[in-house]
Design a protein that fits this description.
alpha+beta, two-stranded parallel ribbon, 2 helices
């Protein structure tokens, strides 16, 4: 199986936040943003695998600033790490006030996806070809997060 470059699966998705996205406080509901994060992450994962993928976990979804109705939301996703059957996708969300032109880093998340074969079973993935220093930096950080996730899973299993 031939490896894939990070740039081959990178995704940028943009959307205007409409009134139906609002929560009772008048801001965009975090759940709507979470769905968009999962969607853009899924596209990047599926592009890399060229197979159906499913979300296995979400790490560190941090909301850093509010999003308002009428804001222009831009989501950036790229594959950071690929194991044998799972991969980490990083997603960055920025919001823009289209009138003022101000941009804010709104949220960041790391999601793990698993590729499925034709029988809906986890299957092997193409390796990840790191092209830039930024790719290598993201990959190294993703390896550290994977080690932490694995340690947490081991700890959880021992307490059951």
């Amino acid at each position: 199986m031939q490896g894939k470059k990070v740039s081959e699966s990178r995704v940028i998705m943009a959307q205007v936040m409409d009134p139906e996205c609002a929560n009772p406080a008048g801001n965009v509901h975090g759940g709507n943003i979470m769905k968009l994060i999962d969607t853009v992450g899924w596209v990047a994962a599926t592009r890399h695998a060229r197979r159906h993928t499913v979300t296995a976990s979400i790490d560190r979804l941090d909301f850093l600033s509010p999003v308002y109705v009428g804001d222009f939301l831009t989501l950036y996703a790229s594959v950071n790490y690929v194991g044998k059957r799972s991969m980490e996708v990083g997603v960055r969300v920025e919001s823009e006030d289209p009138i003022k032109g101000t941009r804010r880093h709104t949220a960041s998340a790391y999601l793990t996806y698993v590729a499925l074969d034709d029988h809906h079973k986890p299957t092997e993935l193409p390796t990840l070809i790191l092209e830039t220093d930024e790719d290598r930096h993201r990959h190294a950080e993703a390896e550290q997060r994977k080690q932490i996730r694995m340690a947490e899973k081991t700890k959880e299993k021992s307490t059951l």
